[in-house]
Amino acid sequence: MPSTVSFTLNGEPVSAEVSSRTLLVDMIREQLGRTGTHVGCDTSQCGACVIHVDGVSVKSCTMLALQADGADVVTIEGVARNGELHPMQAAFREHHGLQCGFCTPGMIMSALDLLQTNPDPSEGEVREWLEGNLCRCTGYQNIVKAVLSAAATMRG
Amino acid sequence: MYEFNYHRPASLDEAKRILSGNDEAKLLGGGMTLLPTMKMRLAQPSDLVDLSAIASLSGIEVAGDSITIGAMTTHAQVAASAEVSSRIAALSVLASGIGDAQVRNRGTIGGSVANSDPAADYPAAVLGLNATVITDEREIAADDFFTGMFETALGPQEILTAIRFPLPKRAGYAKFPNPASRYAVAGVMVAETGNGVRVAVTGAGANAYRVSEMESALSANFSASALDGLAVDASELNGDLHASPEYRAHLVVVMAKRAVAAAGG
Amino acid sequence: MSENGIGAAVRRKEDHRFITGGGRYTDDINRPNQVYAYVVRSPLAHARITGIDASEALSRDDVIAVLTGADMAAEVVGGLPCGWGVCNKDGSPMAEPAHPPLATDTVRYVGDQVAVVIATSRAAARDAAELVDVDYDELPAVTDLASAGADGAPQIWEEAPANVCFDWEIGDSAAVDEAFSKATQTASLDVVNNRLIPNAMEPRAAIGDYDRGKDEYTLFTTSQNPHVIRLLMGANVLGIPEHKLRVIAPDVGGGFGSKIFHYAEEAIVTWASKRLGRPVKWTADRSESFVSDAHGRDHISHAEIAMNDDGEFLGLRVRTTANLGAYLSTFAPSVPTYLYATLLAGNYKTPAVYCEVKAMFTNTVPVDAYRGAGRPEASYLLERLVDKAAKVAGLTPIEIRRRNFVPNDGFPYQTPVALEYDSGDYFAVLDKALEISDYDNFAARKKASANKGLLRGRGLSTYIEACGIAPSNVAGALGARAGLYESGTVRVNPTGSVTVLTGSHSHGQGHETTFAQLVHEALGVDIDAIEVVHGDTGKIPFGMGTYGSRSLAVGGMALVAALDKIKAKARKIAAHLLEASEDDVEFENGELRIAGTDRAVTFGDVALAAYVPHNYPLDVLEPGLEETAFYDPKNFTFPAGCHICEVEVDPDTGVVNVDRFCAADDFGRIINPMIVEGQVHGGVTQGIGQALFEECVYDNESGQLLSGSMMDYCLPKADNVPNFDVATNVTLCQHNALGVKGCGEAGAIGAPPAVINAVVDALSEYGVEDIAIPATPQRVWQAIQSASR
Fold it and tell me: Do C251 and A76 touch (CB under 8 A)?
């Protein structure tokens, strides 16, 4: 039976009618029209769907939309502010941290969460943190470089 | 995923009321195992009872010689807890190595333990550290808790509320992860506790289990070399694409030695 | 060098949309009134369909239709076509069984399409799919390549006795026999090339949208080559002429070959859309991708090499069995033949090479091109064999290679297996790799590893590949049923901005930037005023798409040809405006100048004049400034390189860790070094994946795919690979004006043998001489156990 789910998406209140089995990612993509969050697998492995819920990164394919009721949700569309790229986004471009772009939103959202708790990670810490985000194009090297560079920029 | 009725009760009592007389209802902790299983249509609960709104189920409490962790406490919270890392570093290490960062942000200790997944990490901690599983009805000793693959001593309506870990004298955890899923192929918690040395293994068998030969050897000499030449019987162990029972048996010994070393042995 | 021209590391123009969530992939697109398809797939590896009862599914309110193979067969013109024919040794054609998009009477692998359920939501379609009752009469199945040709093996196709699709050969068998008779030493190798599942991060998707008013079809699809899909699906499957069928491949989330092919779901949604009068959308779950995207590799080979006393190669003999899966995928026959055996000469001047390939049907997902396509199989076999030969000959891996390399003055070099290498300097790339790998200090690193209880090993590979696919007449003579040229259009807009239409398709390669650099270099137009458009048959004149590292060498050259025409016309216009002779007009830095004077017009002036032709030679020149060129390459291109890998092996667990990896490559001229490095990083990582992690496993008893999810099939993760040291050494391609060779596949070709050679080296102290690929922890541990016993 349909229920209404309401939450804050990128700072704006949103709501939609969902069924119990509606995944958060599907609500965001299909009902709220924010297609920057992607679905790359069905076993919670790939991380293309990573978003932030209440300040931490989660896989939105492994959350019911109903579980997000009342939450603060941020997706890739909410990372740039006033048309200005976030340093993490800028670093991905500067260091060629993306190729096909499909994993990129999840990578950026995951990396942003890392820097919240560890603003000065080592290369190894970045690589370990990103174990839940698969990329088939870049070989990860430039992603890691981008995250380290963004971390430096954000530390100021 | 099939349709189901979703509930988010605000209290344990309310959760119990929903569960009562509803055999096909399931409790939802972080959902890191249940939701993928449902997505694959391998489970079809009639009702999901989301425990996330019950505040009393979350939190880490230190009291005297134990740490009690609420069932809905996430792996990330356990991993980040200074109370935990300063008292049971091995538990902190274990929690910080579960799944990936996003799994740790959602997955809960209660969900992991109640599920008794043969490849989950926490069962090794519960058993190895001789923890007590606390439910809304009773307390269950670790040795009585894990009864089989995905099977525990929990009754159908019983809710796991917290786990109490007595502080060990020393403890260490080492795991060999499945290269693809990063679940434990063999994870070993070794602890010197008030009641002697305990060695608990996850990933290798149907459910977490203790290895008495290792416990005896380490009781006599708490060092990795005490396990030299000790072989684990492979006949009861799991086998899959990534690890045959024989390879798992070997890894159990290697991980046990590494756990001892991590414990300072 | 201009800061945005050829050779500059221009940051990618396409990135902004991807880093802000503004990419537009197929599944991001929704059409008004759209319905959703879910494919009912065979749970059995081989069975007769004896009945399909969809009544229960159809009774649901949210179900619109359940369509079967019988429904489709009645309305379409044919099955999924194979685009390449290969002949047997005796000249007879290969077995080419029919491939209906929906099975009509028999299913031949787990995942084969049986029916399609169309409903008002994706979830409803999947719910209803479970209610479609298919009766099967199970037949014996064979998934294992080694068993497919055995006596009594289950027969998959009547027209393919013993499951042989073709039995093919290349090279001079007698010459090789003679070489072996003269040899004083030989080495041999039995080798499996592991079956892989490509796993581009974006699962495949397709939307069919039929416009009844215009009788026109639009297909949105995750394709590397939308024009090829239009051709194959339109002409061979659905009988739709090109002018009534538009295929759009928008942003595509990686391909690696797997999105070259024409898949059943594309035809199903296009056909169903007309039948139902509504747009039909299908998106694969990852689980479906595992059993429906074409797989790669899967060879079993025996190879022998003949040498003289000096370790010089005299002859090479290879016998390969290749798995094609249950049906012929689009380009499947070309992969284990012309893209594989023709590369067996490698970088070496081996005078005689002979290879025979038996290609087999099995009850598995079709096998086709995956990054490298045939060339990784050749390189892996050859470079493992050369390492073995070095041991036999008592030479170092470096010395045996140097003794056998095609010499620098040997180009053009005709190999004994059909190819003519145009340029290269194999010694230089080897030296470059040795230099960046700090080769000489290996012993110290090995000691440091030993102090940690780890075994360090080092391996190298030198590889060559044939890219820039392909000269159409050569490909046609070898069985290709299509041309392999490319088209490019340069449209100079009235105010001087440029729109480029290319038949190449970018799904990560960065064409929107690299191709803009070519235009900037040629016309001097600001790079931000250049837009590269691709992936839409409604906009692009024609195209053959992106695969085989061909985009720059073929698509880029088409663009260069179009730019040449633009420049020629611009000079004519400028000559008119400047009242000068055309021969006196020079085109440089965006200006057209009378040589030796300060009289000039800008390219923008010329563009405006072309579209506002008030002062214009209308009697001799058409207005407008837009040119199209088709470019057919004169030869393949031959990138080559040397990769060096160092691994650390944990003998207690068998875990192999790639500690260092160096790649020195010759890709010809480099347009954007940043993008090239990224391609190498990605290719090497896929190569490391093949060597250490990835393995498609079927259960030969049940025919089920065991490695059917990312929980079991191990893709390399960020913490599985190190930072790579990459370098290039350029020799220019001799037959295209850019001098480019291609870089997309090199990593996947060079890396696997370098990694495995390193693992074998690490384990050599146990007496291990070989290890099966991928060298998983379990396999390494077993190898140590067997050797220690």
Answer: no
